[in-house]
TrEMBL record:
PROSITE patterns in the record: HD (PS51831)
Lineage: Bacteria, Bacillati, Bacillota, Clostridia, Thermoanaerobacterales
Name of protein: bis(5'-nucleosyl)-tetraphosphatase (symmetrical)
Keyword Transcription listed: no
EC number: 3.6.1.41
Ranges for domain HD: 20-135
Iron as UniProt keyword: yes
Amino acid sequence: MGYDIEFFKKRLKELLDEKRFKHSIGVMETAMHLAIKYGADVEKAQVAGLLHDCAKSYSDDDLLKLAKKYRIELDEILIHAPFLLHGPIGAHLVEEIFGIKDQEIKRAIALHTTGDVNMSLLDEAVFLADYIEPNRDFKGVEELRRLAEENLDLALLKSFDSTICYVLERGLLLYEKTVKARNHILLKLGSGGK
Ligand SMILES: [Fe+2]
Ligand SMILES: [Fe+2]
């Protein structure tokens, strides 16, 4: 399709701080790698990976205002944890700021924070890349990177499990989409009743 990646990078740099910009480049490269490995559209993975956090710098108040503007349905959890909205809002901003209308790219960006059931290969590549890109440093990341080279579904399952554990350990609100996404993969792997 011929997206102008260099222009996107320049514009993105104005929206994010240095650390998040570096993270975005890491997600772009890792998403492309996973797309090649598992057969997703590489160019879409590049664009979605690069721009997935384009709404990350907004304050909670601004995210809630933007959700209203874009008519994103809010529930109690989103109102109390507005950072979850940076995915769905990012999906609108990529069209408004970067002129991207591609629904698959927009969906991968929308889902990158929470996950969802029935994720496409592109959605999965971007979600996992966000978790394991080279700048990420947390306990278990090496294991996840290794798993990502072997089995996409297992790596995703581990990512969801680790997100859910993180949320529970800190007493934060657990978003049901993430739970559904986790159960969906477990059932897909055929080990739901173990
Ligand atoms: Fe994000
Ligand atoms: Fe991210």
